[in-house]
Amino acid sequence: MPGSGVVLGVDVGGTGIKARLTDAVGTVLAEQRVPTPRDDPDAERLAATVARLVVAALRTTGGGAGPADQSLDAVGVVVPGVVDESTGRSVLSVNLGWQDVPVRDRLRDALAAQGIDVPVAFGHDVRAGALAETRSPALAVGSVAFVPVGTGLASALVVDGALVSGGGWAGEVGQVRIAHGPHAGLRVEEIASASAVARRSGTDSAHAAMLRVRDGDPTAGAVWAECVDVLADTLAWITAVAGCHTVVVGGGLAESGALLFDPLRVAVAERLVGLRVPAVVPARHGDAAGAIGAGLLAQDLLATLATVGEHA
Questions:
Q1: Per-residue pLDDT tens for 1-26?
Q2: How far apart are CA 135 and CA 69, in angstroms?
Q3: Are residues 41 and 22 in the same domain?
Q4: Using 50, 70 and 90 to split pLDDT, how confident is the model at 309?
Q5: Nearby residues of 30 by Cβ (< 8 Å), 6 or more positions away
Q6: What percent of the chain has pLDDT over 90?
Q7: Which of 82, 104, 263, 268 has the fewest CB atoms within 10 Å, measured from its CB?
Q8: What whole-number distance in Å separates Cα of residue 177 and Cα of residue 191?
Q9: Domain that holds residue 106
């Protein structure tokens, strides 16, 4: 669906903030990435950082003179954890150290301090990523799950093009406790996430762990297999409950390609004997899905405001 103006989509992650400035047809005008401020439960520094990202993106496209050289119609920002989109609050974001933080209001204030007065859309990073991944005719009908395997593990369900929020609580699959087996008592994301693979294999990153797996390292290989096993359990349950015809896997681990997807597809199929087995496919947008989705939220907000204005 065509957009309504120039927007900045901002994805706030546990380790970094990604921002993309796009025009009404989705053309990328500028991109910015900075580290996420840490240990700031009031989100003041983060809001100020995002406001500076807005200014930097506008200057990039405007020749370096300042915000006035590039128009901006709206900003969309998405964060991890449990969020309340209707009030613009982060209910709980463990990775950011937040609890009941009015993110949207903080950001509006920080933008106003920079002389920028535009509407602000607010949402959940994984649901926004799902929005980006499923805005195509092929995925517009039926149930589709988006599961990014990154610092943590979460999911988002899109049914006939509409996101399922569950009051902000839907999709927190990484927080479920494993009940049986060698990992009993641990949360799912403590085994099935990119950060868990890196930590448990004794490497600096999931990519480094993947290289060790390819080289035949037995420790890394065992950790990888356990990740696939727990992740397959999770995807199978999501599919069985929601009837997904497609599961889109994103995040850092998805960049491993066949090393992840070949055994994962087999494992998911083994768990769904007699049921429809979903297509398990890699995300199209990689780690940019959240920022793209944030931009779509901003475009949707502009469209809603325009509709309200027409009927006022």
A1: 445 789 999 998 766 888 999 998 88
A2: 31
A3: yes
A4: low
A5: 20, 21, 56, 57, 58, 60, 61
A6: 56
A7: 263
A8: 11
A9: 7-128
Cβ burial 233-252 (10 Å sphere, 16+ → b, else e): bbbbebbeebebbbbbbbbb
104 part of a folded domain: yes
Q: What single-letter amino acid sits at 285?
A: H
Q: Is residue 153 part of a domain?
A: yes
Do residues 146 and 203 share a domain? Answer: yes
Based on the fold, state whether residues 104 and 147 are members of the same structural domain. no
Tell whether 301 is covered by a domain: no
Q: How far, in Å, CA of 74 to CA of 54, rounded?
A: 10
Per-residue model confidence as pLDDT tens digits over 130-160: 999 998 887 878 999 999 998 889 999 999 9
* 3-state SS, residue 286: helix
Place of tokens 């910015």: 32
Q: Assign 38 a pLDDT band (cuts: 50, 70, 90).
A: low
Q: Mark whether 47 and 179 lie in a shared domain.
A: no
Q: Which residues lie below 8 Å from residue 213, measured CB to CB, with a gap of 6+? A: 220, 221, 224, 259
Number of domains within the chain: 2
Verify that 278 and 165 share a domain, yes or no: yes
